[in-house]
Amino acid sequence: MSDTSSLMMPSGTDTNCGYVALIGAPNAGKSTLVNKIVGSKVSIVTHKVQTTRSLIRGIAIKDKNQVIFVDTPGIFAPKRRLDRAMVNTAWGGAKDADCIGLIVDARKGVNDQIEDLLDRLADIKLPKVLILNKIDLVQRDTLLALAQQINERVKFDETFMVSALNGDRTDDLLDYFAAHMPRGPWLYPEDMISDLPMRQLASEITREKVFLRLHQELPYASTVETEKWEQKEDGSVRIEQVIYVERDNQKMIFLGKGGKSIKAISMAAREELGELLGTKVHLFLFIKVRARWVDDPERYREMGLEFPV
Ligand SMILES: Nc1nc2c(ncn2[C@@H]2O[C@H](COP(=O)(O)OP(=O)(O)OP(=O)(O)O)[C@@H](O)[C@H]2O)c(=O)[nH]1
Ligand SMILES: [Mg+2]
């Protein structure tokens, strides 16, 4: 930290700091929004639903205010144990926050999923903000009607209309939350943008490539864990990761013809990790068949999820 920036650190008694939980249906754009506000990729994003599986914190600063955005898994009607863990985690994150931002995909509008979300949200006595996202895809009069329709169901303190993708009006959101954080010392150093350990971020990056490369049930039938992280003398890093799948035939699809799929996943993940770490990365992916990994508490711990009984 330079002398100038340490002089600019707030002294402590007049600072504000708090948590904003961003909740919403899967694919609403929560992770995209956190990344945009923080100004760096802290949470993975794909076009598929249920990408985020645990709470991911992205930290932003505005003047003397530190705002900790909590990206959450999308909320939907859970079926499997993993789904339940994700949805429980999302609601847990919401209840522990100082303020809740509900993100709604404005193009999709209000469907059953949003109706259920609004019903549960109505019972939570925390400041709430409605964020209509993806305004780049929707006409203005549709947005106004949607804002009104939702506010008639649950009273929000404020409504914002943003595009998380291109950053349209996302600064207004940060300004608003910064102005509504409780008094208190900053919880993270000023240069910290996420509290996710590197090993876990590395697993997430590989998982993102799995989601982008493979289809149907495969991304949902798998999880990625970083098992080894070794700094080499030449400055490069050797990372070993395990991808757990449920069945042999899933392993075959993961591998692809002549190992084509796993190679593509590995290359994409390695490239991004290399950029992130600013050094050469040697990435080794191992696929393990573990029939009941979705019922194994250890896998949930690794993901940062509570194991639902
Ligand atoms: N056009 C447009 N697309 C967006 C916008 N925000 C997000 N997206 C896209 O929506 C898709 C889902 O984005 P995510 O950020 O992964 O959504 P999420 O809410 O975190 O999804 P889950 O983690 O599955 O709950 C991605 O393809 C994004 O590029 C936006 O403002 N405009
Ligand atoms: Mg997400």
UniProtKB/TrEMBL annotation:
Stretch list, region G4: 133-136
G3 as annotated region, ranges: 71-74
Region (G1): 24-31
InterPro entries from the UniProt entry: G_ERA_dom, GTP-bd, GTPase_Era-like, KH_dom-like_a/b, KH_dom_type_2, KH_sf_prok-type, P-loop_NTPase, Small_GTP-bd
Region G5, residue ranges: 162-164
Principal location class: cytoplasm
GO biological process assignments: ribosomal small subunit assembly
NCBIfam families reported in the protein's UniProt record: era (TIGR00436), PRK00089.1 (NF000908), small_GTP (TIGR00231)
HAMAP family hit by this protein: GTPase_Era (MF_00367)
Function (record text): An essential GTPase that binds both GDP and GTP, with rapid nucleotide exchange. Plays a role in 16S rRNA processing and 30S ribosomal subunit biogenesis and possibly also in cell cycle regulation and energy metabolism.
Name used for this protein in its record: GTPase Era
The encoding gene: era
